[in-house]
Amino acid sequence: MPPASMQGQTTKAHRACARPIRCQASLPHTCAIRGATRSNWSMADSAPDHGPAEIEGLRTQVAACTACADLPLGPRPIVQIGAGARILIAGQAPGRRTHLAGRPFDDASGARLRQWLGLDEATFRDPTKVAILPMGFCYPGTGRSGDLPPRPECASRWRQRALDLLANVQLTVVIGRHAQAWHLPDTAGLALSEAMRDWWVRWLETVLLPHPSPRNTGWLRRNGWFETELLPTVKSRIEAVLGDSTL
């Protein structure tokens, strides 16, 4: 966790920031999802403002995808993207309940995540404010110790195309080790607690969170600083981003 002096500096900085920090790297990175790759991308100041029609066209294509016909409950891609979205939530993959409901984070994990981010239901589900793009768009099925990993087909087919259209994103909330490997490849080999330890280094652009699943309650109890120190900063940043019409 950051020292108190630095934490105060980051809080003041994010209130004044109107643009995200640009990624300076130029080499492609390898994602942990079975070798899927992505090139480094950034939300540049001069990025084009993609219109609703272009984004809706991609969303329609994604919704019709049947690349993973062998899924236990069949393909049902679940994403949330819209023109103007300023917050990007990059998660793992829909759970069974979310698959049945047909919308992202429609479960106990979603309720906890909204609480963490300080978002009400309406704002969280507004695609013009919040984009939700998991590493796998469909429910992957269940293994011995929980849901299976996200399928890799989504990352190679759709992910970069969707990210390229989200030109107004100011903060990316990274959830889970597969999203961590994609968005924060320099931390891919680190345990969650270790990767989160220097969270302010990549602030204001990106923040890594543990999965909000009830399964992680033990981790939250052992890491009280997460809720007392990091979450207030995250909530303030989100409030600033969504409330500033000049961004």
Structure overview:
With 247 residues, the chain is of the alpha/beta class. The protein has one domain (49-243): Uracil-DNA Glycosylase, subunit E (3-Layer(aba) Sandwich), CATH 3.40.470.10. The chain contains 10 helices and 8 strands. The chain has helices at residues 4-16, 52-63, 96-101, 108-117, 121-124, 153-165, 177-183, 192-197, 217-222, 225-243; strands at residues 29-30, 37-38, 87-90, 130-132, 142-143, 146-147, 171-175, 206-209. The strands form 3 sheets. It has a 4-stranded parallel β-sheet with strand order 4-3-7-8, sandwiched between helices. The radius of gyration is 17 Å and the shape is globular.
- Amino- and carboxy-terminal Cα gap: 29 Å
Task: Give the number of domains.
Answer: 1
Structural class: alpha/beta
Shape: globular
Give the number of helices. Answer: 10
* Computed CA radius of gyration, to the nearest angstrom: 17 Å
Order of helices and strands: HEEHEHHHEEEHEHHEHH
- Relative strand content: 5-15%
CATH class equals: Alpha Beta
- Largest sheet strand order: 4-3-7-8
Q: Tell me which CATH architecture applies here.
A: 3-Layer(aba) Sandwich
Helix-strand blueprint:
Elements (H helix, E strand, L loop, with lengths): L3 H13 L12 E2 L6 E2 L13 H12 L23 E4 L5 H6 L6 H10 L3 H4 L5 E3 L9 E2 L2 E2 L5 H13 L5 E5 L1 H7 L8 H6 L8 E4 L7 H6 L2 H19 L4
Parallel strand pairs: 3-4, 3-7, 7-8
Antiparallel strand pairs: 1-2, 5-6
Helix pairs in contact: 1-10, 2-6
